[in-house]
Amino acid sequence: MEEIIEFFSRLGDSSDWPPRWQCGTWSDFHGWLYIISDLMIWLAYMCIPVILLRFIFVKQGVPLKRVFWLFGAFILLCGLTHLVDAFIFWVPVYRISALVRFLAGIVSIATVVALVKYFDDAVGLKTSQEFEHELKYRQKALQTLEMANEELNQFAYVASHDLQSPLKTIEGYLGLLESRYASQLDEAGLKLVRTTASSANRMRTLINDLLDFSQTGLNQEFAQVDMDILMAETLEELQNEISASGAQMRVSPLPVLWVARNDIKRVMQNLIGNAIKYSKKGSVPEIEIWAREKPDDWLFCVSDNGIGIDETYFNKIFLVFQRLHGRQEYPGTGVGLATCKKIIETHGGKIWVQSSPGKGSDFFFTIPKNPKTIHDFQRTE
Known about the structure:
By secondary structure, the chain is an alpha+beta fold. The protein has three domains: about 1-125, no CATH class; about 140-215, Helix Hairpins (Orthogonal Bundle), CATH 1.10.287; about 220-375, 2-Layer Sandwich (Heat Shock Protein 90), CATH 3.30.565.10. Helices cover about 60% and strands about 10% of the residues. Its EC number is 2.7.13.3. It is an enzyme of class 2 (transferase).
């Protein structure tokens, strides 16, 4: 222990040895060749860590970054041993030389351990050729998926559009039948005509909702949108429902986002409309809307004190044409939340619900600060 204390207390003391020039017989050529070689190696070793550090900072998301840091420290210390060796020709700081070599040894062992530890991970890293091949495969798959999606949307649009014509005929004849022959029909006949007309009207609503759903996310026009202004417009458009229900609205300040304006307005209309529709009988709807900033996105919440939803149906309610209640109790087609989910996901966000029966519902959704849609990825091909 005393030797260690003495070693560090005399770390910079060079009085115990003569300079290297005076050890043995050095010719000028031999000595300077040794010194210049050490300095060249030191200079090269100094450049390697600088390049590695620049690579780490410039190239974000570098895998196995810890190995890079260890390797840089190892190279730096190895270079430092050569610098000290050259310096010893004039000042014999052998204690400093021994300490630097010891540190280089420790770091070199740590580097070897890290290389062994991360060997399997390093082998699993893809080469640039493998990345290029995978990128081409993904782009092809994306194109195929987009084409299939476009064909499906087109089919839904055409099918829904073509259904409108015979439906108009049915509704027209039913109206004509009721207006001209109502006096000749008994109560059962009139009920049959009116039930059929009501079903035709419900089918028209379903077709229109299907048309809207099939076109959701297409031809989106993104722009900077002040959500406070958009919310004010949404509440004004829903004023009849709000007034009729006596709903109490609380809206916190909202951010400015890069979104498809009309689509996000539809999300807000659906969520607020549902909060009013599914309020508890004899209770005044209380609806709160707020947003919180997260590192990469904005979190929105539409909260109510309504009838609530059982956890079993948290996923089902976001599927198209899925309803939890009969049409007589709560009107609707079951497309609204499916449309919200499609819109939010085309923005790169997520939507979910937290709720308990009888205790209201909290609908959450996120909007990325820099949303990337499928069209953005297509433009980078």
